[in-house]
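Entry:
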Amino acid sequence: MYYSVIKKYDIADGPGVRVTLFVSGCTHHCEGCFNPETWDFAYGTPFSDAAAEEILEALSPDYIAGLTLLGGEPFEHANWTALLPFLREVRARFPHKDIWCYTGYLFERDILDDFCEKWADMKAFLTCLDVIVDGPFVQEKKNVSLRFRGSENQRIIDVQGSLRQGKTVLWEDGESR
């Protein structure tokens, strides 16, 4: 897996001050994407143990609320399979920090119905995530006043609540693990 950038102080992609990892590789190619260079799976730098340690160190201060994964597309097979061991380490070291993930895939149709059927480890990946912002960016539904979303079709989903209840539960500000 490659990544384009690690931001150590991000306030736009989830609540509080966050560390964000922009992975490379995306097959959605949404019109108006704010990061089209990350469509290329080989864009940027290979994700290494050193990059993982850099993120883990950046997550350590108490004022850091959590980690956000963006892209590119974290749910591309090559990306989530590389991220899973890393996210397990994040969870082990920082159980009270939340993990957000942005995806152009739809939670029910693509992730739960398709990916969980195809790949047994997808459920393990989902157990590492607190919030998913799902749905492709749609230029015609762009709305700059939305909090943590780029277009009106996108939803902010409480992943653990959804898995517990067996239905999609939308995230409400202030909720986390």
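Strands lie at 2-10, 17-23, 45-46, 64-70, 98-102, 131-134, 155-158.
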